[in-house]
Amino acid sequence: MEMQERVAGVIAALKAEYPDALCALQYKKDYELMIAVRLSAQCTDARQSRDAGAVCTVPDAGRLRGRRHCGRGGMRALMRLLQAQGAGHRPRLSDAAGRVRRKGAGQDGGSAAAARRWPQQMDDSNGAVPISNVPGAYANGYDVMIAQKICEANGWQLEIVSSAWDSLCPAVQSGTMDANIAGQSMTADRMQEVDMAGPYYYATIVCVTTKDSPYASATSIADLAGGKCTAQSGTIWYDSCLPQIENAELLAPAETAPAMIMQLQTGAVDFICTDMPTAMGAAAQDDNLVILNFSGTDGDFQFASEAERAENVNIGISVRKGNTVLKDAIDSVLSTMTEDDFNQLMDEAIRIQPEV
Fold first, then answer.
1. Mapping DSSP to helix (H, G, I), strand (E, B) and coil, where does residue 84 land?
2. Of all helices (H) and strands (E), which one includes residue 289?
3. Interior CA angle at 25 toward 23 and 26, to 5°?
4. Where is pLDDT greater, at 127 or 41?
């Protein structure tokens, strides 16, 4: 691969991971950038903008017109489903972000979102799907594979779009997307906002540590007492699970799953809390990681009821409230699959994931 192709690949990957990123570094002239680079080891981009502006006496250089913003949850994908209502009929298009056509008259049109657990790659090997708003990038993994099964069974065409986690439910509520296939738990709170098909996976909550960690032999959350830990922001892992560990030193949440895993790999934390698919994917890439699964034991994370536990383990596909046609079409596919089917598909997704 030529250097130019590699650079393009890196840029595409960064755009997918941080679709909303802005840089606080401001400059108008080449010499302002030179001064900012000289300052870069000493302060933040925002401070560079201020100081470089002061040194160069450039009007407004000190105003911060932007800030870094990566979006919670990192890279997400949106699967669009748009109806083609018979020959010669133009399908309804919601916007330019990406489209998937559902073939056949009389079906409800719309769009859907996919995929929390998918690695990004730079080709279509192993059935990867292009990310329509990230040229040259492709998505694969469990959620994409589930999306493909649903689309194939219903005669739909799949398209993946990169999006932020926080945009998922608003997208189906507004009708921009039909459904989110993005690893969303089927919680009571979420189901007040959207309806959910599924489950399409049962995501056991686990912890992950390193082989040389004193916590590697833990058999219950009691054995993790006093450890330094974190999880991904906006998740039950961070908000409800880790606080159950006695005297745990809970660090600030990680914005993305890769950032959470990196904190463990670099020794910033002793262990992390996540779901089994994320843990399995990380362990497949790094044989120094150990999964701590306490499920089914008295030493597991506790919930107020088994119903509450189930809603945080069951992973579903969210659709707009009242869109029973789409929900039933998705359920008609998922209802034919067993938990063993889900696990086998997950094993395959992990097997084919590209090396980092």
1. strand
2. strand 289-292
3. 115
4. 127
Give the model confidence (pLDDT) of 86-101 as tens digits.
323 222 222 222 333 3
Contact 68, 21 (CB under 8 A): yes
Check if the beta carbon of residue 319 is closer than 8 Å to that of residue 196: yes
Q: Can you tell me the mean pLDDT for 226-253?
A: 94
Query: Would you say 115 and 147 are in contact if contact means Cβ atoms under 8 Å apart?
Result: yes
Beta strands in 155-223 (DSSP E): 160-163, 179-185, 195-202, 205-210
Q: Are strands 314-319 and 195-202 parallel, antiparallel or unpaired?
A: antiparallel
Q: Using one digit for the tens of pLDDT, what is the confidence trace for 274-325?
A: 988 889 889 988 999 999 999 989 999 998 888 888 887 888 999 999 999 9
What Å distances lie between residue 80 and 92, 134, 159, 318, CA to CA?
11, 15, 6, 13
Length of the chain equals 356
The per-residue DSSP string of 314-347 comes to: EEEEEE-TT-HHHHHHHHHHHTT--HHHHHHHHH
Integer angstrom CA distances of residue 151 from 81, 82, 101, 279, 346: 9, 12, 10, 27, 18
Q: Say if strands 179-185 and 129-130 run parallel, antiparallel, or are unpaired.
A: unpaired
> What's the rounded Cα separation, in Å, for the pair 261 and 282?
7
pTM of the model: 0.60
Residue 28 confidence (pLDDT): 55
Residue 214 CA to residue 291 CA, distance in Å, equals: 14
Measured distance CA(323)–CA(3) in Å, rounded: 48
Residue 51 has pLDDT above 70, yes or no: no
Would strands 82-84 and 129-130 be described as parallel, antiparallel, or unpaired?
Answer: unpaired
Q: Backbone phi, then psi, for 297, in 5-degree steps?
A: -120, 165
Of 165 and 266, more confident: 266
Residues 78, 161 contacting (CB under 8 angstroms): yes
Q: How open is the CA angle 78-82-83, to the nearest 5 degrees?
A: 160
HEC per residue, 101-145: EEECCCCCCCCCEECCCCCEECCCHHHCEEECCCCCCEECCHHHH
